[in-house]
Amino acid sequence: MRSVLFMEIKKAFTNKLFLLSLLTAAAIALYAAVFSILSYYKYTEADLLSASVSGFSLNPELPGTTLFTSWIGADHISPAASLFYLLLPLIAALGYGWSYCSECKSGYIKNVTTRTSKTNYFLSKYIAVFLAGGTVVTVPILLNIMAVAVFIPAIQPDVFYDVYYAAHPWSTLTPLFYAHPVVYMLLKIVTTFIFAGLISEICICISFLSKNKFVSVFTPLFLLLFINYLSNTVNNLPQISPIQFLHTGKIYVSLSVICLEVVLLFAVSFAVTLVRGKKNDIF
Amino acid sequence: MMHIIVSHVSKTIKNNPVIRDISMELHSGVVYGFKGINGSGKTMLMRLICGLIRPTQGEISMNGKILGKDISFPESIGIFLENPAFLDAYSGFQNLKLLASIKSVASDADIRNTLLRVGLDPDSRKNYKKYSLGMKQRLGIAAAVMEKPDIVILDEPTNSLDEGGVNLVKRIVQDEKERGALVIISCHDAEILKGLSDETFLLEQGRLVGHITGGNI
Amino acid sequence: MTFFKLCKYDLKSGMRRESVKYLVCAILFLGFCVGFIYTKGKGLEARTFGDFLFFITAGMEEYIPMPGNIFMVPALWVLMILAPLYITLYYPFYDLTAYGKNVLINAKSRLAWWLSKCFWAISCVFIYYLLLWGVITLFCVCGGKLSLDISKSLIFRLIPMPSEDFCFTEGDFLQGENFAFQILFMPILIVSALSVMQMTISLIIKPFFSFCISAGILVLSAYYLSPFLLGNYAMSQRSDLLIDNGVHMQTGIIFSLALLTLSCVVGLCIFMRYDILNKEE
């Protein structure tokens, strides 16, 4: 099992499509960083100009714009951040989600399954797809944070400036955002990693129905867009769309909903992968 | 020593019977040929023996263990089925090394020797993507034999090969037989099959219609 | 003659391949119509054909970036446009790597092949919107009004501050003939232009990434109300008939036709020199 797992992980992290999607996501994330930094400096410049002209400085409202509100996961103003989270399902799927479909079609799966059991193959595939999907999304986020952190100070958020923040008063983790913003940020990154990994597992499930790589890669995107639309249609309930609650906005996010979605996604994808995988003939 | 018993095996796919009530016994150290026209069920039968698909009826046992019940796949098998399939971004050697890492039976030296046996350069950095059809075929054969498996299944191994390549396949089959492997080979060319196989099974429309021993077809 | 034969082949072959996707789209349209009835369409006197179509193609109001004003991508509008872009994404690429190679050789003309693919993409988009109109017609026949007029109350629900000209128009409905082209044909034109552009870009980079570029254009269009971003013309609530700083429909028509033509020509130039290898899907 270990050797198959290492083989799958190696294939996942060294394939061209993984690297291309990582680069694309990184480009979007860095553009979002540039946008945030330029907005911050525009505001700071306005303040300095006002001070030089009138002798009075505007209230700098320092806690209004901090690292914790300018990184891509909290930036609710820049178009690049929205684009990143809109395309998150596609980027995650492009990591390695297409591999089972591709290997079935080419026949490569025969070479592997005759050397090990189907259970080992599918388990390894599941883990590799999860890791690749999570990594391809999380690394650009980390790059964005590093870029933003160089220019924008990490000032503790202040509840007095809550109008600037994308933290809903009812959301479960909002107190954590104010008390320990670094922990909040890390928690969001970990959640994003987990969701991206699980979203890319949807590709494997779809591959059992269709051997078309395009269908398996694009289905998670359209599924989540549809969930996003449904979620926006119903008001006053916790946000169920991962595209929304991973990106944040002034939306009501419930920890129990997030945990439930994780468990559900994992249970369904894992069960389908292993059960269908073992049951299906390999042609 | 490998002993395979195929007992009244049938396979139906989407209400279409592709294999109908086939029984046979196979032993190590013998080369078996499967002969039949396109669609006669040769490849399907090979897939059944590999464990890639499960019979609708009947069973296949290997040294007393039933395929699909006691074991999922034969414990030691090397296959070359239909078109060769490898990873485009890797060279021939890297592809074989990746596959060999699963069972860790074949060393780098074994892989190098196998590549030389099939007429490929183990030091070539050329990606699989740039291989010609003949080279892909040779790599597929190399993957089937590199781990010295007890069962070797070669489905149309001489496709796309020049005369030199065909002679190479003959040599490899002979070597595997001498090593004591159970070799199953299918080929359209009667002459090649005649020269290679000790026993030949004739298939027609999924049925076993003949069994010839001694290479007389 | 070859061109027409190729068009016939593409329509037959391509539509057959994409039939399941159209079925899924039809189900989505049903969902959107039901969603409209229970959200913005609630309490409207009579839900007209125009109301349904306006809601689906509305998009979002102009976004003013400032702290506290969250930018949320209009999910329905994005989904409606990305779906036909996805439908038209795969087939041309597939046709080059598979059976279509034989067709190309028999046709003996790269020009005819490329033009037939462009024609196919535009037809696909047209059929997609025809399907949408069909589903909406069903809802109107069952419990609405088959008219292109749009309820003013719906417009006020979606656009809090419309233009003065609109506010002072008489009657409870915006007359269908004033706005028919915007809601009926502008989305088709815009999406057709985007899909041919996408097809052209797919000749250079992988189709997945050309799709990302299309998605990027849509998000930027939602973010910036600008006549230079094509997506704005596909948003009915950003028309200058309804808001003061809106985009002009005629400009949108010229822009999309220009993009369509340019993509066609550039794609043709690239395809004339294109090496048709069995590239991995």
How would you characterize the overall build of this protein?
The complex is a heterotrimer of chains A (283), B (217) and C (281). Chain A has 283 residues and is mainly α. Chain A has helices spanning 2-14, 16-54, 67-70, 79-86, 88-96, 99-106, 108-113, 118-151, 174-179, 181-207, 213-233, 242-247, 255-279. Chain A has one domain (2-279). Chain A is built from 13 helices and no strands. The longest helix of chain A is centred in the N-terminal third of the chain and has 39 residues, at 16-54. Chain A is elongated and about 80 Å long. Chain B folds into two domains: 1-76 and 152-217, P-loop containing nucleotide triphosphate hydrolases (Rossmann fold), CATH 3.40.50; 87-148, no CATH class. Chain B starts with a strand and ends with a strand. Helix content of chain B is 31%, strand content 29%. The radius of gyration of chain B is 17 Å and the shape is globular. In chain B, the strands form two sheets. A six-stranded mixed β-sheet of chain B has the order 6-7-8-3-9-10, sandwiched between helices. In chain B, strands 2-1-4-5 form a four-stranded antiparallel β-sheet, covered by helices on one side. Helix content of chain C is 67%, strand content 1%. The chains are: A mainly alpha (283), B alpha/beta (217), C mainly alpha (281). At the A-C interface, helix 2, helix 4 and helix 11 of A face helix 1, helix 3 and helix 10 of C.
